[in-house]
Design goal:
The complex is a heterodimer of chains A (161) and B (266). By secondary structure, chain A is of the alpha+beta class. Chain A folds into 2 domains: 2-77, Roll (Ubiquitin-like (UB roll)); 86-160, DNA polymerase, domain 1 (Orthogonal Bundle), CATH 1.10.150.120. Chain A has 6 helices and 5 strands; from the N terminus they run ββαββαβαααα. Chain A starts with a strand and ends with a helix. Chain B folds into 2 domains: 5-50, Uridine Diphospho-n-acetylenolpyruvylglucosamine Reductase, domain 2; 113-266, Enolase-like, domain 1, CATH 3.30.390.50. Helices cover 33% and strands 22% of the residues of chain B. In chain B, the strands form 3 sheets. Chain B has a 5-stranded antiparallel beta sheet with strand order 4-5-8-6-7. In chain B, β11 (198-203) and β12 (211-212) form a beta hairpin. The chains are: A alpha+beta (161), B alpha+beta (266). Bound molecules: flavin-adenine dinucleotide and FE2/S2 (inorganic) cluster (2 copies).
Chain lengths: 161, 266
């Protein structure tokens, strides 16, 4: 057992956990943040993606020890109160989800993609960058549309700041 | 995953000392090979020693002749490095097609080279560029490092500290990705050194892991161009055959990927 201290969605968290605990288990089982999903548990699907110190990573392939001291953001931490993050709003408006299982990981990846590429995104780049996120429902078209829509919304929001 | 004890040392010496104390310790870098294997209970280290934050193992340096990438440098930092793009752009390209963005956020060059997966990308670059693998104990030439499937010259407790690549005149990499795993169904790295030597290595093809391809080297030595390989026939002896492709298919891929790599190298 070890004591880990990290920041999750802006709040300090301390937990006493077994060293073999995965970050996704800490989030879901210990902190009750069940928005982060486990799709494959074999590092392939991206449903478990969260941000660690600003990078999109697979929380099913991260030991809590590796995240000790880090700043973690999950799907629960991106809206401002009732106001959806522009990426969430774009997924809703463009019908970017069906069952929704892949969506938290898609959105966390997509925010990272827009952060890295700025507003300079085209369809091909989005498709390539989303290759670590698997969706069984949508056929991806509306997900790609959502990300491109959000990229322009985020650019506008940034320009306004 | 079986029970284990996690450690995060801040120096290589501390990591080696912790390794000696564990009954069956393993180093952990990006964790994108080790953790999936631990989750499948195919390995059960008593101690996991996280070397990914050791400052001496992170960073990229370029001189006139050599590009040195320290072992725990992540793929994303290699892709974004101005030094890598300037000195050996083929390494930046190779790194940009490893796995997916989340894998590249965590995976490290040292972890990949230490694993020596027969379908991994970096071994092809290391062997074709005739790189030197530096460890906490010694320097190992690429030719002496890779020892077949998942096997290397490393001692159990040895840590790769950096990989030094001689900067070539030209280099290119091309891979046919397995669309599901994104590993190389076959990938080929071609090099023309500053002294005019031609070195070509293929990954994802041989049953023994990464290998040189003499037939392609000879053809490119005579004429450095993609069309020089049109008439080359690669034997499928010793090549992998699985549900993704026959050995014959892979033999042809070696040629086609080499042609694309030469075109990319210019
Ligand atoms: C979904 C997915 C897709 C992938 N696609 C590709 C791909 O397309 N191409 C490809 O090449 N790879 C691919 N990989 C593998 C990936 O590149 C791994 O990151 C890499 O193989 C291991 O690096 P790591 O830093 O994650 O090592 P770890 O998993 O932390 O360690 C792997 C092994 O290396 C040892 N080790 C690590 N660092 C050192 C060191 N400095 N010295 C000595 N031993 C060390 C560890 O003890 C362990 O045994 C993929 C992985 C995943 C999960
Ligand atoms: S649950 Fe983590 S990648 Fe699928
Ligand atoms: S919406 Fe169902 S898996 Fe993507």
């Amino acid at each position: 057992m070890s004591t880990v201290t990290l920041t999750v969605n802006g709040k300090p968290v301390t937990a006493e956990v077994e060293d073999r605990t995965l970050l996704v288990q800490l989030l879901r089982d210990h902190l009750g943040l069940t928005g982060t999903h486990v799709g494959c548990d074999t590092s392939q699907c991206g449903a478990c993606i969260v941000h660690i110190d600003g990078r999109a990573v697979k929380s099913c392939t991260t030991l809590v020890g590796q995240a000790n001291g880090a700043n973690v953001t999950t799907i629960e931490g991106i809206s401002k109160g009732d106001e959806l993050h522009p990426m969430q709003a774009a997924f809703r408006d463009n019908h970017g989800l069906q069952c929704g299982y892949c969506t938290p990981g898609m959105i966390m990846s997509a925010i990272d993609i827009v952060n890295r590429h700025g507003g300079e995104l085209d369809e091909e780049t989005v498709r390539q960058e989303l290759e670590g996120n698997i969706c069984r429902c949508t056929g991806y078209h509306n997900i790609v549309k959502s990300v491109l829509d959000a990229a322009s919304r985020m650019k506008v929001a940034q320009a306004a700041e | 995953m079986y029970s284990t004890t996690y450690h995060r040392p801040s120096t290589v010496e501390e990591a080696v000392a912790l390794f000696a104390k564990g009954s069956d310790a393993k180093y952990l870098a990006g964790g994108h090979t080790l953790l999936p294997v631990m989750k499948q209970r195919l390995t059960a280290p008593s101690d996991v020693i996280d070397i990914a934050r050791i400052p001496a193992l992170i960073g990229i340096e370029a001189s006139a002749d050599t590009l040195t990438i320290k072992a725990a440098t992540t793929y994303v930092d290699i892709v974004n490095s101005a030094d890598v793009k300037r000195t050996i752009p083929a390494i930046a390209h190779l790194t940009s097609v490893v796995g997916d963005p989340a894998v590249r956020a965590r995976g490290t060059i040292g972890g990949s080279v230490a694993t020596n997966d027969p379908s991994a990308d970096y071994p092809a670059a290391v062997l074709a560029l005739n790189a030197t693998i530096k460890t906490n104990k010694r320097s190992i030439a690429a030719e002496d490092f890779f020892k077949g499937l998942f096997a290397t010259a490393l001692d159990e407790n040895e840590i790769i500290t950096a990989i030094s690549f001689p900067i070539p005149a030209k280099a290119g990499y091309s891979k046919m990705r397995n669309p599901a795993s994104r590993f190389a169904l076959t990938g080929v790295f071609v090099v023309q050194t500053k002294s005019g030597e031609i070195r070509v290595a293929a990954t994802g093809a041989s049953q023994n892991g990464v290998m040189r391809v003499p037939a392609i080297e000879a053809a490119l030595k005579a004429n450095w161009s993609a069309s020089a390989l049109d008439g080359v026939k690669i034997s499928d002896e010793g090549l992998m055959a699985d549900i993704h492709g026959s050995s014959d298919y892979r033999a042809n891929l070696i040629k086609v990927m080499a042609q694309r790599a030469v075109t990319a190298a210019g």
